[in-house]
Amino acid sequence: MALTTDGKLLLAANNAEDPPFATLFKANGDASTSNVSIITRVTVDNAIIPKGFGLSLEQPAWEPKTARFYTSIPVIANNPAGCNYGQLAGAITCHGGLLVVDPTTLSKPTAVIGAFDPATNIGVVPLNACSPNGATVGPHENLLLGCTPQNNPSDTTTLVINAETKNYANIGNITGSDEVWFNQGDFRYYLGASRACGTSGTCPDPTHGFPGFASLGVVDGTSVLIEKIPQSSASHSVAADCKRNKIFVPQAAPASVVGSGGDTTTVGAGICGQATNGCVAVYIHEVDSEDSQDEQNNQDNVCQANNNQGNQGNQNN
Questions:
Q1: H or E stretch covering 312
Q2: What is the mean pLDDT of residues 179-186?
Q3: Distance (Å, rounded) from C-alpha 280 to C-alpha 272?
Q4: Which of 47, 73, 246, 298 could pair covalently with 97 via S-S, beta carbons 3.0-4.6 A apart?
């Protein structure tokens, strides 16, 4: 789900439906009474997301300058032309897309979104070498998308795309993200990269293998990978507190305890301090002391404003 900055509109993606859809809701903003209602059910043209093949919509994000919702689409048809989105035998070869929605144009009960129109900044943008699950808004109207080889085995980078120009850059050496998060407090992206080692057979340590070697990816505001921090093999979620610059990453309990979906490495047990339960790992980024006080105060103010707005929206919804 994603809220507008004023908390008055909310977009929720239903990824497990076939065909998938998104629902635009009227939300409460700062109102003291509930006025939540459905505005529009949004689907994507069948030529882009064909029905019957288990394709999906994933994490949306709100970008305030362009006043659009941007939603990750893991796989779309004909990107590139003639690719396999599931209609053929063998591996998926189609890359994903980015659904751009202008909520001010949605008033009827249903809407079908087609190919991208640069004149209106609405529609589905085909992506380069990315089949994303996650989406988050960073500085300068940039969006980082959590690409993953789980959707398309050839997509082994992460993508940053500008909401206005649609110019993009691929970030090497980090892949396999599900949820992603931009932290205003330290101007860094954090990636819940459960497939950070790539696809089966490509992990550097054959004794653990896929789906091991999940990582917390850390990317700075200029789209440069800083580091990858090992996580339990099922780790795929991340959130950050921008006031304290704390980063929270859930860890799975060992597979020997919980079965399928549990940690198949020893990493989670090392983080959690015991080998029977999962936990939430908490990391902290100490902002460099050489940062100017004015810059730090500005970051704190932006963070506080975002936190206040988000808290109001969460309480009222």
A1: helix 293-316
A2: 96
A3: 8
A4: 73
Q: Compute the distance between CA of residue 9 and CA of residue 28 in angstroms, rounded to an integer.
A: 8
Helices then strands, each counted (H, E), the chain: 3, 20
Query: What are the pLDDT digits (tens) for 248-301?
Result: 999 999 999 999 888 888 889 999 998 899 999 999 998 875 554 445 555 555
Task: Enter the tokens of residue 240.
Answer: 């950050």
For the chain, what is the radius of gyration of the CA atoms? 20
CA dist 51 → 17, 46, 54, 122, 132 (Å):
10, 6, 7, 21, 19
Instruction: Tokens 């206040």: give the residue.
Output: 308
Amino acid at 203: C
Helix (H) or strand (E) holding 295: helix 293-316
Percent of the chain whose pLDDT exceeds 90: 76
Beta strands (DSSP E) in the chain are 2-3, 9-14, 21-26, 37-44, 60-63, 68-73, 97-101, 110-113, 123-126, 132-137, 142-147, 158-162, 168-171, 177-183, 188-193, 214-220, 225-231, 239-241, 246-251, 279-284
Q: Which of 161, 210, 186, 175 is nearest to 61 (CA)?
A: 161
